[in-house]
UniProtKB/TrEMBL annotation:
GO terms for cellular component: cytoplasm. SMART domains: Cyt-b5. It comes from Mycena sanguinolenta. This is Acyl-CoA dehydrogenase. One of its GO terms (molecular function) is acyl-CoA dehydrogenase activity. Residues 1-67 form the Cytochrome b5 heme-binding domain. It comes from the Eukaryota. Keywords: FAD, Flavoprotein, Oxidoreductase. PANTHER family: ACYL-COA DEHYDROGENASE FAMILY PROTEIN (AFU_ORTHOLOGUE AFUA_6G10880)-RELATED, MEDIUM-CHAIN SPECIFIC ACYL-COA DEHYDROGENASE, MITOCHONDRIAL-RELATED. One of its GO terms (biological process) is fatty acid beta-oxidation using acyl-CoA dehydrogenase. Its cofactor is FAD. InterPro entries: Acyl-CoA_dehydrogenase (IPR050741), Acyl-CoA_DH_CS (IPR006089), Acyl-CoA_Oxase/DH_mid-dom (IPR006091), Acyl-CoA_Oxase/DH_mid-dom_sf (IPR046373), AcylCo_DH-like_C (IPR036250), AcylCo_DH/oxidase_C (IPR009075), AcylCoA_DH/oxidase_NM_dom_sf (IPR009100), Cyt_B5-like_heme/steroid-bd (IPR001199).
Length: 402
């Protein structure tokens, strides 16, 4: 029989002794002493208010398990595929097929080739010495024509002087892939090694206080050997522009993954959260939001699969001609979709969606940080414009009769 002294509860067949914890409980002691909770099976109430990770964090409070019962709630194993519909792309979901991917992917053998070729590549890909891309500057933003970081050619190679801003990973990087302007006015790409003359200062951003390692980087008369020039003999500008397609691809893929995670959180919450005795998902307006989330993310997914296929099939020159515009428009579409999805998710979660701990913490984090993808690798308006200018250029140079 539950009373004021009862300090244990059952959650998912597990028995927890709360005598040492009740007075410290972030949700207050009173709720734990409530006769409907204390000494009872509180599984449903618990999962309405806590993420399952809370149980792992406080596993030390568990004193036993109900005889003959098995815990029913399965926690997500990091790295495992989600069983929630639409939380994974179809090619990772049981029962679906893909025109693009095969069952087996020999990533390890591809890496092994790459690793043998070059010390810097080996260092970076093996994770021994992190590398970062240093293009953006305070003066020029991502306008590569306006870069001011200088590379001066000497008999022994290059000397680099200048600064870079918003460089992700720079705090931990050993190598910096730096876009510089040579005295001739041409862009050269140099791999600068951390050492004398290289300094990194952390920048606090909305998307990361420290974990992204975002930094302001200064190069003060840093010597770079000639073999560290990327694509020597080719215009550095073309190398940067060619890389943009891949950079935007990565950012878009991350944005799509984020949208799926947010959808997963929302579907779970909408089916679990009860309002006026009914699950949130019984409200048509909530189901409309979920439907919109799926439509947005699946449209982005189909477009990126198509572009990925084209990237794997086209030559570098063909990619530059045909895909720069497509990739720009897709990234713009995907980051706008992610903002709409984040806004819907906050409405579904209410106050929890703007709270940094508890049930809505992923929603809050996504909503607060997603603009990194909407800006990094080209802001949305710039990309939209680029995509349309490329289409107009192709159209103007063709012999289509109207
Ligand atoms: C093993 C048992 C429990 C543990 C270890 C525990 C732990 C916690 C923790 C760590 C929080 C902070 C929020 C978070 O990190 O999610 C919290 C909040 C809370 N807990 Fe518990 N709790 C337990 C059981 C319960 C039960 C049975 C109830 C009542 C039904 C309850 C009601 C609440 C409430 C109302 C909050 C505040 C939620 C919010 O701010 O949205 N807790 N609990």
């Amino acid at each position: 029989m539950a009373n004021q002294d009862t300090q244990w509860i059952i959650i998912d067949s597990r028995v927890f002794d709360l005598s040492s914890f009740a007075s410290l409980h972030p949700g207050g002691q009173a709720v734990l002493l409530d006769p409907e909770i204390a000494g009872q099976d509180a599984t449903e109430r618990f999962f309405e208010l806590h993420r399952s990770e809370v149980l792992h964090r406080y596993a030390r409070l568990q004193i036993g398990i109900i005889e003959g019962e098995e815990p029913q709630i399965k926690s997500h194993v990091p790295g495992a595929l989600s069983a929630v519909p639409y939380a994974e792309p179809t090619w990772l979901s049981p029962g679906y097929h893909s025109p693009y991917y095969k069952e087996v992917f020999h990533l390890s053998s591809i890496l092994q080739n790459l690793l043998c070729e070059n010390k810097i590549v080996e260092d970076a890909l093996s994770g021994k010495k992190p590398i970062c891309l240093a293009v953006t500057e305070a003066f020029a933003g991502s306008d590569v024509q306006g870069l001011r970081c200088k590379a001066t050619r000497t008999k022994e190679g290059w000397i680099v002087n200048g600064t870079k801003k918003w460089i992700t990973n720079a705090m931990w990087a050993h190598y910096f892939v730096v876009a510089c302007k040579a005295e001739s006015g041409e862009i050269v790409i140099l791999v600068v090694e951390r050492g004398e003359g290289v300094q990194t200062k952390p920048i606090r951003t909305a998307y990361s206080s420290s974990s992204a390692g975002t930094a302001f980087v200064t190069f003060d008369s840093v010597r770079v050997p000639p073999e560290n020039q990327l694509g020597a003999g080719h215009p550095g500008l073309n190398i940067i522009l060619a890389n943009f397609n891949h950079e935007r691809w990565v950012l878009t893929a991350a944005t799509i993954g984020g949208q799926r995670l947010i959808f997963e959180e929302c579907l779970k919450w909408a089916t679990q959260r009860k309002v006026f005795g009914k699950p949130l998902s019984s409200q048509p307006v909530i189901r409309q939001k979920l439907a919109a989330m799926i439509s947005r993310v699946e449209s982005c997914q189909s477009w990126i699969e198509n572009i990925t296929f084209q990237m794997c099939t086209m030559s570098a020159k063909e990619q530059a001609r045909h895909l720069a515009g497509q990739m720009s428009l897709l990234k713009m579409h995907a980051t706008r979709a992610s903002q709409a999805t984040a806004a819907d998710a906050v409405q579904i979660f209410g106050g929890r969606g703007i709270t940094q701990t508890g049930m809505g913490r992923f929603i809050e984090h996504y909503h607060r940080t997603l603009l990194i993808d909407a800006v990094g690798g080209g802001a949305e308006d710039v990309l939209a414009d680029l995509g349309i200018r490329q289409a107009i250029r192709i159209f103007s140079s063709s012999s289509i009769v109207i």
